[in-house]
Amino acid sequence: MHVLDVGSGVGGAARTLATDIGCEVTGLELTETFYRAAEMLTKLVGLGKQIVFHQGSALDMPFENESFDAAWLQHVSMNIQDKRRLFSEIHRVLQPGGKLAIHEIMEGPSTNVLYPVFWAHDESISFLEQPDSIRRQLTDCGFSELGWVDVTERALELTRKRHDEAEEMGPSLLGLNVIVPKDVPQKVKNSLKNLEEKRIVVVQAVFERLM
Question: Edge to edge, what strands does the sheet with 68-74 contain?
Fold first, then answer.
């Protein structure tokens, strides 16, 4: 299986997919520093032949039509305003019957997200949408929904644990502060409050590309 990791960051998901499933992974990342870090870390753990990274935009992917068996989208769409273009590009590069797995943060029933958060310092680069809007746009772009699970409570538990550990022990040497060096304690607090007050929700879902 050949999987496209859209918005691959420093490559953690790509390395997990390659190691746990044994698939070939292509990562696409817009930010140059993350792209370079992903390449370096992947070579250090001996996965350089199984994973390849490209620097580029998810709205204009440098791949041929129907290149991948599956696509992976994790905490990416919050920073992309033109989600219809994003989903259309994923649809284009997937083979018919290919799967799209998402793990995304979306707008909750209580609006007015507290900033800063990990994906945005303020609302100028944050483009959250309601779950129903995301589902509708994916369907309009030629996908069929196979599964949709709200995992907000699980995310809340993990965020609360991260917050409590930071309060007790201070920041970890290998924690989020390594790749998000600014305002990490405040971002954790805001993320916790946003989840508790349903300002944001977290969803995992699987879609299939139709013919």
Answer: 51-55, 24-29, 2-6, 68-74, 94-107, 200-209, 143-150
Domain ranges of the chain: 57-209
Q: Which residue has the tokens 């369907």?
A: 139
Nearest one of 38, 40, 16 to 27, comparing CA atoms: 38
Q: Do 177 and 184 touch, CB atoms closer than 8 A?
A: yes
**Cross-strand pairs, 100:** 71, 207
Q: What's domain 57-209's architecture?
A: 3-Layer(aba) Sandwich (3.40)
pTM score over 0.85:
yes
The answer to whether residues 166 and 70 touch, using CB atoms and an 8 Å cutoff, is no
The pLDDT tens digits for 143-197 are: 999 999 999 999 999 999 888 877 776 666 666 666 666 788 889 899 999 999 9
| C-alpha span between 146 and 198 (Å, rounded) | 25
Matching residue, tokens 């550990």: 165
Mutual angle of helices 184-196 and 152-169, in 10-degree steps: 140
Sequence letter at residue 92: R
